[in-house]
């Protein structure tokens, strides 16, 4: 009897998981690169699924479908699933039908149109759109029209209509002026153009790159906070230094994590993280169950130039967008950091790990603080 009972339990432990995960897959044809170590599963669920293997960082997979949180991939001829947020989609650019010379000619024409008055620009665009409709378009002609419209830029400045001028009272004028001044002040506060980013000597990016990205990162946060009626974050050199240190540790490890001790720590050990901050010159007050806070991110950088500031901005924007997608979800630690009323100071650090020539895995860390002791 005991043997039958044990066989019964074994049968359900082996076969029940396959019934526990319900899902539907939307077809998708893409190529993705992993930016973290991911479990390769037989179904898109975190529990009760079989794990075939674990990916390495930088592996390329053919994506054949997607669910809400997972991509379906082709794994050794089998259908398998990996976590979406651990994958960067490789954008495949369409090959142009125009030669370089032809493209330059089209762009030069478009630039000349751009220099015309708004009225003439509008006339040119209407003519181009008419030609698009009336001409028997080959793919090449269609690309010429599209390129022209893209370079000219849409929408075209609106023509000023001859409307009667409204006489405003002094009160209206004062209200309007104060509103404009407030908007300017908020914008200035959010962008912090005159902000000086310290050179800690930790990051392996140039001073120009770290300056540009740190200012951009602060702007993203403070612009959103201004919309929510929250005070802007103040940038802090101590937090930048600690953030750069943790990004460097992550790059040397080859993966992102909050664990100070990878073998013994939990996913986010609050008190161990507070102790680490303190040991690295950041002593934050514990206020409303908040002290020093850490957010991390990772992404793939493709750049062979001496200054990769523009590419880095696009890369960290993906991390910010990922944080913003947590809005409305039950688990939203990164979004909470964006709108946290108890946090007042911020620092940002980046560090790169070379994959091959012109390709880098970039680790970013944001450190926050309530108030310093």
Descriptive overview:
This protein is α+β, with helices and mostly antiparallel strands and about 375 residues long. It is about 40% helix and about 20% strand. It is built from 11 helices and 11 strands. The chain has helices at about 1-15, 15-20, 100-115, 120-135, 140-150, 170-190, 205-225, 235-255, 270-280, 310-325, 335-340, and strands at about 25-35, 40, 50-55, 60-65, 70-75, 80-85, 85-90, 235, 290-300, 345-355, 360-370. The strands form 3 sheets. A 5-stranded antiparallel sheet has the order 6-5-4-1-7, with no helix packed on it. A hairpin with a 3-residue loop joins strand 4 (about 60-65) and strand 5 (about 70-75). Helix 3 packs parallel to helix 5 (about 140-150), helix 4 (about 120-135) packs antiparallel against helix 5 and helix 7 packs parallel to helix 10.
Task: List the topology elements.
Elements: H1 2-15, H2 17-20, E1 26-34, E2 39-41, E3 51-54, E4 60-66, E5 70-75, E6 78-83, E7 87-89, H3 100-114, H4 118-134, H5 139-152, H6 170-191, H7 207-227, E8 234-235, H8 237-253, H9 270-279, E9 292-302, H10 309-324, H11 333-339, E10 345-356, E11 359-369
Parallel strand pairs: 8-10
Antiparallel strand pairs: 1-4, 1-7, 2-3, 4-5, 5-6, 9-11, 10-11
Helix pairs in contact: 3-5, 4-5, 6-7, 7-10
Largest sheet entry:
5 strands, antiparallel
| CATH fold-level topology of the largest domain | Pathogenesis-related Protein p14a
What is the alpha-carbon Rg in Å?
27 Å
Number of domains: 3
Strand order of the largest sheet: 6-5-4-1-7
Number of strands: 11
Tally of contiguous helical segments: 11
Ends apart, CA distance between termini: 67 Å
Q: Please identify which CATH superfamily of the largest domain we are dealing with.
A: CAP
CATH domain class of the largest domain: Alpha Beta
User: What proportion of the residues is helical, as a percent range?
Assistant: 40-55%
Low-confidence stretches are: 14-19, 154-163
What is the mean pLDDT?
82
């Amino acid at each position: 009897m005991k043997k039958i009972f044990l066989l019964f339990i074994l049968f359900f432990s082996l076969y029940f998981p396959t019934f526990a995960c319900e899902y539907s897959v939307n077809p998708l044809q893409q190529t993705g690169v992993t930016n973290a170590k991911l479990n390769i599963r037989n179904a898109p669920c975190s529990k009760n699924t079989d794990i075939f293997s674990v990916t390495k960082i930088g592996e390329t997979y053919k994506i054949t479908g997607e669910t809400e949180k997972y991509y379906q991939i082709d794994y050794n001829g089998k259908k398998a699933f990996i976590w979406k947020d651990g994958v960067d989609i490789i954008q495949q650019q369409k090959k142009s039908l125009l030669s370089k010379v032809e493209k330059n000619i089209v762009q030069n024409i478009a630039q000349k149109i751009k220099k015309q008055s708004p009225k003439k620009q509008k006339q040119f665009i209407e003519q181009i759109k008419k030609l698009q409709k009336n001409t028997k378009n080959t793919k090449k002609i269609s690309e010429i029209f599209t390129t022209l419209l893209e370079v000219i830029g849409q929408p075209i400045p609106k023509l000023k209509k001859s409307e009667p001028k409204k006489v405003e009272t002094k009160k209206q004028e004062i209200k309007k002026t104060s509103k404009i001044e407030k908007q300017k002040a908020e914008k200035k506060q959010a962008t912090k153009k005159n902000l000086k980013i310290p050179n800690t000597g930790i990051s392996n990016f140039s001073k120009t790159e770290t300056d540009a990205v740190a200012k951009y990162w602060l702007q993203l946060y403070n612009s959103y906070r201004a919309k929510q009626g929250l005070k802007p974050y103040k940038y802090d050199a101590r937090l930048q230094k600690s953030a750069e240190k943790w990004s460097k540790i992550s790059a040397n490890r080859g993966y992102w994590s909050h664990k100070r001790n990878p073998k013994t720590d939990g996913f986010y050990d609050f008190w161990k993280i507070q102790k680490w901050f303190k040991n690295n010159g950041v002593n934050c007050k514990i206020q409303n169950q908040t002290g020093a806070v850490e957010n991390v991110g990772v992404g793939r950088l493709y750049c062979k130039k001496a200054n990769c500031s523009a590419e880095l901005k696009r890369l960290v924007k993906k991390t910010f967008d990922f944080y913003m997608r947590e809005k409305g979800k039950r688990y939203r630690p990164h979004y909470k950091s964006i709108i946290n009323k108890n946090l007042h100071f911020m620092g940002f650090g980046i560090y790169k790990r070379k994959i091959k020539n012109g390709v880098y895995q970039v680790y970013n860390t944001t450190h926050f603080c309530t108030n310093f002791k």
